[in-house]
Design goal:
alpha/beta; seven-stranded mixed beta sheet
Amino acid sequence: MVDRLRAQGIRDEKVLDAMGRVPRERFVDEGLGYSAFDDTPLPIGYQQTISQPFVVARMLEILRAGRELGKTLEVGAGCGYQAAVLAQLATEVYAVERIRPLLEKAKENLRPLRLPNLRLKHADGMLGLAEVAPFDTIIVAAAAREVPAELKQQLASGGRLLLPVGVAEQRLVLIERNGNLFKESGYEGVRFVPLLGGVE
């Protein structure tokens, strides 16, 4: 998988190393184990998916460019895969998931990896996690119609927020905060499940 990511243009060796250290097969349903290393999203139940490896690597590469991830918030923990990769790269990771049974599944998947810098929480990701903000990095694993204001406000100065934005047409959008100024940059098109509010 790492060789394929390198061939696809991922250049950040720390990201490649982190991807190589997390066993993706641990995070997919048993019946899909044969597809664990394919470059494709896979269903994880509850109308959610585990992102394709290239998209995970690409988002991390954008967020890391020229800096460390520091204290990181992941919105949409899903089955826990991306949180496990983030834990290899960030000093602290807070991963929130709105669907409780999925969060329980993520905890089960992550337990054997014993990642002391990773915390999981059942919460509405659109609201971020104000009690432990600000964050140096925020990554969102679902597509928003527009950038949630709460997430922007929970960014530390110098922080970066990356998320897919759009409905029929989605693209990655990077928000960089400098004091009270926010700079927005657009990247390639992607396909994610929609970002929803509330908890289940």
